[in-house]
Amino acid sequence: MNKPNKIENDLLRGGQFLVKETPCEAIFTPEDFSEEQKMMRDSVKEFVDREIWPHKERFEHNDYALTEEIMEKAGELGLLGIAVPEEYGGLGMGFVTTMLVCDYISGATGSIATAFGAHTGIGTMPITLYGTEEQRKKYVPKLATGEWFGAYCLTEPGAGSDANSGKTKAVLSEDGSHYKISGQKMWISNAGFCDLFIVFARIEDDKNITGFIVENDSGNGISMGEEEKKLGIHSSSTRQVFFNETKVPVENMLSERGNGFKIAMNALNVGRIKLAAASLDAQRRVITEAVKYANERVQFNTPIAKFGAIKLKIAEMATNMFVSESATYRAGKDIEDRIAIRQAEGNTHQEAELKGVEEYAIECSILKVAVSEDIQNCADEGIQIFGGMGFSADTPMEAAWRDARIARIYEGTNEINRMLAVGMLVKKAMKGHVDLLGPATEVGKELMGIPSFETPDYSELLSEEKAMIAKLKKVFLMVAGSAVQKYGPELEEHQQMLLAAADILIEIYMAESAILRAEKNAKRFGQDAYKEQIAMAQLYLYHAVDIIDTKAKEAIISFAEGDEQRMLLMGLKRFTKYQNMPNIVALRKMIAEKVTAENKYPF
Q1: Of 39, 349, 413, 446, which residue is 20 to 30 A from 164 by alpha carbon distance?
Q2: Is the distance from CB of 119 to CB of 149 less than 8 angstroms?
Q3: Is the pLDDT reported for residue 281 higher than 60?
Q4: Is 411 a catalytic residue?
Q5: Helix crossing, 463-487 with 414-431: angle to 10°?
C-alpha cells in the first residue's frame, strides 16, 4: 500500500479541484505504483493472457460455464478478495490496488469484467461495509474465495434510474422471525450461477427501500427467467429473478430498515470509479491490436500505420487512454488517502471506506462518464483501422465495441451521472464543503473589469496549459454561477443546461489530471523521456477547450439575454483564448510514431 503522498491539509475534498490549484507533486500517477502493486498487476495480466484472452471466441458464444470457471480460478488466486479485510478471508489491499486488479482483469472480455465487477463490488461490498459482524463472518469469507458468488437485485421493470421506486415487497411474518419477499428483478448479473443475492425491497409503505441478504434456494420461492439475449457481454449471465414469498430471516436485513437506498447509492459510487478502471485495459488491448494490424497491413506498398489518417486515429486513441488512466488513478489515490485519514481519526474500516468514497462521489461520476465514452470511441476507431476485417467476428474489434456499449448504461446512465456530478457539486457548495460562491463572485468582478493586456511568461514547462486550466475553471464558475442565480432551486429541472455544465466539469478534471501527470513525470524523470506524455496532455487540452467553448456557449445562450449574454460570451472568449496555439498535427505525429514504433500501447 502506498503511503499517503499528501498531508491531511493538502488533500483536497471532493469537487475542490475546481476552485483550488493542485501542484503536480500532490497527485498520484501510475508511475508511482509500488513494487507490490506492479507484481500484482503483472500476475493479473499473466492470468488474463493465459486463461481468458486465448478463449475470446468462447466468450462470444454464451459460454456461461467458462465464465464461472474463470471466476473460480480468480477466487483461488485471491483476486476476488483483494478489497476484503484479512479477518474475513481477503487480502485487505488498499483502494488503489483494488482498482489495479479490476483494471487488468477486465480488459480481455466484457463478460469477465461484468462478472468480476458484480461479484466483488455490488455482490460482496454491501455486506463487507454494511453487514453486522455475524453477517460478515458468515458470508464474506465464502465470497472472498469464490466458494460462493454474489449478485445484486436492485433494478425492476419500473425502477431503473429511479432506483428507490421499486415495487418489490418485504412483509414481516406473524411470529416476527422472517420477512417474505415478493417481486421481480431484472438485468441481474451473475444470476445464473450465484449463491447469494443482495435484494432491495420495501417494507410496508416506507419512503425508502431496505436491503436484505438472500441465499439462492429454488425451494424458497426463487425462480429465474431465461438468459437474456444481449448486444454484448454474451457470457455474462443476465437473468430476471422472481421472488414469491421468499423467506428471509430477520437477521439477514442489511443495515437498518429503510437504509437500502443509501446502500445502493454508496455501492454505485464505488461501482462508478471501478467501472472506469474496468474500461482501461480494454483500451490498451484495442490500441495494441489496432497498431499491430496497422503495422502489418500494407496498401499502396506502404504499411497503413504510416498514413496520416491512421496516425491521427492512433494518436487520439492513445491520448484518451492516457488521460483516462491519469484521472482514474488520481481519484483512486485521493480516496485511499481519505480512507487512511479517517482510520487514523478512529473510524472503523467500514466507516472509513464508505465516507472516503462518498467524499469523491463527484469525481466517481465524472470518471464513469468520461472513461466509458473513451472505451466506446476507442473500440469504434479500432474497427475503422481494421477496415472490413474490423466488422468481422474473426477479429477482436467488433466484440470489444459491443462489450463497451453497456458501460454507458450501467452504474447509472451517463446522462444521470452528468446531472449528478453538477447536482452534487452544488449541494457541497451549499453545505460549505466547496466554496463556489467566493470564486464565482471573483469571476463576476473580473468580467466587469478591464482585462490585462500584459503578455504572460509561459517559459516554464506546461505553464500555459496550467494557466488555461485555471481559465477553464472560470468558465465553469461563470456559467454555473449565473445559472444558479437565474434558476435557484429549479436548476435541476433544466437538464440540457446541466448536461452542458457537466461536460465542462468533466473536461476540466480529465485535462488537468493529464497535465499534472505529464508535468510530474517530466520533472522527475526528464522532459525528453516524457515528451509524448507532454504531447498527449497538450493534445487533450486542445480538444477540451473546444468542447468547453461549445458547451458554455450553448448554456449561456439558453439562459442569458441582452447585455448579460454579451458579457458572458465575451468572458468565454477571453477564458478560452490561447496565447500560443499548439501544433496539433505535429503532436499527433509524435504520439503515433511512438505507439507504432513499440507496436503496442506503450505509456
Answers
A1: 349
A2: yes
A3: yes
A4: yes
A5: 80
